[in-house]
Amino acid sequence: MNIFAETIAWLTNPKNWTGSGGIPTRLLEHLQYSALVLVIAAAIAIPIGLYIGHTGRGRVVAVAVAGALRALPTLGLLVLFALLAGSGLMPPVWALVILTVPPLLAGTYAGISSVDATVVDAARAMGMTELQILFRVEVPNGLQVMFGGIRTAVLQVIATVSVVAYLPLGGLGRYLFDGLVLQDFPRMLGGSLLIAGLAIAVDLVLAGVQRLVISPGLTLDSSGRQKAADNLTAAAPAEAAVQGGTP
User: Which one is predicted more confidently, 231 or 156?
Assistant: First the structure.
């Protein structure tokens, strides 16, 4: 029996779908670790990205830092945090947060920066505050680019969170490390297929969410977007005149 047939046999074995070490349990652990990393990374990266994209300040520093963080080796960073902070869940989580911040940060400030300056100027001329411009104009119009960063970060986390099993913790990466120790290659290949399948499934879900939350107008071609910007710009003086003439 070749390794592919053995892998299928391992995946279809009912014993591997029950108990504390079963596939559903490991899958849930993997999703929990991934969600924790993403929530913490988003809380750090998105506000900074919004500020940089809106003001234009610190962009060079952000690009340099994001590039440097992406170059860090995942396993080396994981071991370093484990040595400094001890065992437990949070050391590997913080290591993965450092690696997840760059795509979220880059996607956020790139999305905000991609909004046409004429649209922003028109919103400012209509009397909007800076926060209103950010959340009512720039975020909705930059959401398509921002979603690209989110999807990249999610896929990266799902793939790399497997290394937490090295400490050891749970998740689908448990099959990879246990299989390596036991020389059980069908288990390793089965775990790899489960991780890849999970990443594909989550990305398809995010693609569906993206289609639901992003306005169809953002899929217009460049001429359509420019026409919309021109219309908003033309409406700004009239709106300002109405506001100025209102008692």
Answer: 156
